[in-house]
Each structure stands twice: as structure tokens, then as C-alpha cells.
Amino acid sequence: MWITKNEYALRQIDATVTATANLNYVEKIKIQQELEPTSARPWIPSKYRILIDVGEVADNMAGVLAKFYTSNKKVVVNEPKDQKFYMRPIEVSEDFRIGSDDAYWDSHRHEPLSPTELSVYQMIDTLRNIPVVKTYTEVFKVIVNGYKKVGKFDFGPYLAVYANNNVEGHRLQLGFRTNIDFSDKWVIGGRTAYGFMDEKWKYNGFVTHIPDRKRWTTLTASYT
What we know:
By secondary structure, the protein is of the alpha+beta class. It has helices spanning about 85, 100-110, 115-130, 130-145; strands at about 1-5, 10-15, 25-35, 45-55, 65-70, 150, 155, 160-165, 170-180, 185-195, 200-210, 215-224.
């Protein structure tokens, strides 16, 4: 730990747990915390760095190295808020896409990325462009979301493409909906299906308007 000479305040502390601690598969844990003074004089944490090194669970499996970093600036003290202020969860702004390129983040980061961190970003970008990785990623997204995204439209749900029942027999269904790239206020979608036993077409169409995203208020009109 580092103690300041004049204030005798805690400036920084490093804590490390090594493999000798015998935590299952955890080879190392390192926690670093830096503190800075506030306008009210007490020092509070401004930077957190956490590193967790997990070894190989099995011979044919890779280990995991997880790193977390949090930085705080412009801390405000002695200005209490109303209790309702703390009841609202932290949300991503609707215009978060604005200025989200590399130049924007480079100018807003408290500290520039290290050469190691830059190489990790480049490695991830390279992996994403490998055909087999892109294929598995798309398949995983379809399994989780049920829809395949194509531009401004999502096609699916694929879990309902085929069904079988006593009235319709074999039933095939296709559908689509617009996504946020189309509009963050409007969602348009529909589905159509055909039963081979009753030889009838079924269809559904809907339009949803989102007047308020914070309180998540929606108005929907549909026809089936």
C-alpha cells in the first residue's frame, strides 16, 4: 500500500492471491485500487483494476484471463440527490450510436489503450472475420433470438417454421419484423402460414408504436 506523506491518506493498494491459496482452477487474482482526494478532503477510489487468471479445467481446454477496469472522474460530493434519483436504473442513451467510432472513444477515454489492449481488439476483429467463426456466431444468434437479422429486417421466428397438429397437419410458417435499424419508434411485422391438411392460409400483421422508451409504453394494432 502507498500512503501519502502529508495527509497520511491511502493513495493506492495492491492485493494479490496466488495459486498457493488453493482456489479451484484459479491461478491468480490481482486487485489494484487508486484513490484521489475530493473537495471535501476525504480520499475515495478513482480507479479499479481486477485481473483473474483461471487455469485449464481439462487438458483439451484453454484457460481464461479476465481483466476489469473502472475509472471515475469529476466526482461530486456533499450534493445529495432525492431518493427517487437512485431508484432509476442506469440506461444506455437512445443516441449512443452517435460518435461511437474509434476517434470518439479515443478522445473520451480517461486513459489511452495500452499496446496489449489494442492488440486484443485487433485479434477480436480478425476472429470475427473468419468465415467459420462468423457462421457459428450467426447460428448462435438465431438460436438465442429466434430471428435472422438482414439489414433493417428480422426474419423468423425459426422455432415456429414447422409444426404439426391434428387440424392443419404439416404446417409451415414464415414471418418478419423490423428492427431498431429501421426505427426506434415503430415496429412493423407479420407472419403467414399454410396447413397442408386443411389447405388453408393463415396470416397476421401488426404495427407497434413506442411513444416512451423510458417507461416502455407501446401501442399495437394487429390483424389476424
